[in-house]
Design goal:
The structure is a homodimer of 330-residue chains. The first copy, chain A, has nine helices and 14 strands. With 330 residues, chain A is an alpha/beta fold. In chain A, helix 4 packs parallel to helix 5, helix 5 runs antiparallel to helix 9 and helix 7 crosses helix 9. The first copy, chain A, starts with a strand and ends in an 8-residue tail after the last helix.
Chain lengths: 330, 330
Amino acid sequence: MEAFKWGIIGPGSIANDFADDLKYVSRPQVITSVLSHREESAKAFAEKHTVPEYYTDINAFVSKRNFDAVYIATPHTLHYEQALTCLNAGIPVLCEKPLVINADQVRDLIHAAEINKCFLLEGMWIRFLPSINTVLELIEKDKIGKVISVKASMSYKAPRDEDNRYFNPELGGGSLLDLGIYPVFLSHLLLGKPAKITAAGKLSPDGVDETSAILFSYESGAHALLESSIITQSELSAEIAGDKGVIKIMSPWNEKPSAIILKEYARNEEEELPCEWVGRGFQYQVEEVIRCVEANEIYSNLYCHHFSLDIMETLDEVRRQLHVHYEKFE
Amino acid sequence: MEAFKWGIIGPGSIANDFADDLKYVSRPQVITSVLSHREESAKAFAEKHTVPEYYTDINAFVSKRNFDAVYIATPHTLHYEQALTCLNAGIPVLCEKPLVINADQVRDLIHAAEINKCFLLEGMWIRFLPSINTVLELIEKDKIGKVISVKASMSYKAPRDEDNRYFNPELGGGSLLDLGIYPVFLSHLLLGKPAKITAAGKLSPDGVDETSAILFSYESGAHALLESSIITQSELSAEIAGDKGVIKIMSPWNEKPSAIILKEYARNEEEELPCEWVGRGFQYQVEEVIRCVEANEIYSNLYCHHFSLDIMETLDEVRRQLHVHYEKFE
């Protein structure tokens, strides 16, 4: 079977993890081209992953187009221009989360995907993990009844140095877009778009959100209590409670959890569902990208364009309430 | 040493637990008198706990006054009249949480305590437990730095039968006053009165809150994410995150936790602090009541009148946002 060919934009640590996981995809995968604004980074990545071509200019990278799809793994303030350039060249795009930094930018990318009939997927890789599918199956099988409460936290104490993008407003820093998007994704996946959003947070002297705390309420009466932080480090678990039972995704819930625990109230015991897979788990997302690209679909129906838009509209509203504004980009 | 004498109002299951724990108090304790509107309940309790006198009429109970203090353990819609009657008779009062059902009633009781120079304490028994003191000591010792986030949940799937006070608006039902008061207490203890309160919830057909979800924000930038429910049953843990470390009070955080876990970010290990005591733990609260009554203090400075008022004002605001109104009593 012919190998599926990737171009990589932004050869940082995430791109390295992504490249490492390609060996676990059922169909052969190769990286044929890499782009970085720093030649030494592009070259180092090319050597490490045996990539024949590297570039520092996106137009040259796109013109040569020696790949079936690109994976964009740069800081998120760069995603918009890079994704737009690729979509307008008809190149299928898998772009790291957050897709871009506000809903207007998402709308532009969706429009570009539609007019160019070109695949676009936000790289919320955990959507495709067996752990998240297990949760969805348990809910589908009515193991916990109607979902009433989603609680999830994503906090990581980031080193406070000048190079750290987390504290840099010019790189779209703060906890929300990088980390808070995970719990926001989970609540949107399980409960949809909230009827009401309330947020609180703590800003850094530079005006990025060091913490965000979010309460969503839904017409059904359900709620979500979500949190992200770059100044604290708490247990990375998520709990989904229904009227018949409760699911706990053990730490780290947004990567490979130690387990998923199901407790049905009517049975006085807990069921522990293992979460095991090889590598970090990017292969599941890659399988979905290939399936869509081969079928000439412009979105994945597991994480469609409007789902990205819903999430970004929510993040915009949270940022509005927190008074976090990325002046350079908005 | 002469025994400290208790009168009990409302000999239900909590009063039984209270009575059982009296043997763990350093000074001898006796229950000399019990009051219930149902004679059979009063009599059964009197027999079980060797109580010489039982009553069905509060005026007779108060007039005889064969005790040093009363413990009120009736449903909370009855607390106001009973506590007021006792305070106006100059009888020291320990009254189960919630003290009453709204802030106006708290103000009346504080006024009665003040004009009668009579002790009054809301029975938030966990305030006096070694577990909560351990948390306060860790924070005092700066183990976790400045408190940034408090997350706590108290959910209990109550049987939905007609006798169940949890679903009965005429008994002040709902999750908030009975269960939600615990997480609200914890956040007030650690962070004070919130600058902003936002609540969401799910109401029963009878208009009591089956769930409440609360976001508090504070001037310092700290936040609290709190939850209570009578239709779900989730992990009863609490997590307090600071900029230097995090404390997790393991389940059941609001009773006798399996442990308290301290994690200092700078040290790459967890410290597990045991929580062990005999009985349920009412003895610690009782010791404080006796100390105050003997010293002729009208409040405990560990849980003063205005702390009860702050909490009740918060609960009033949450109820206002949830549209929960106890028509019969307000």
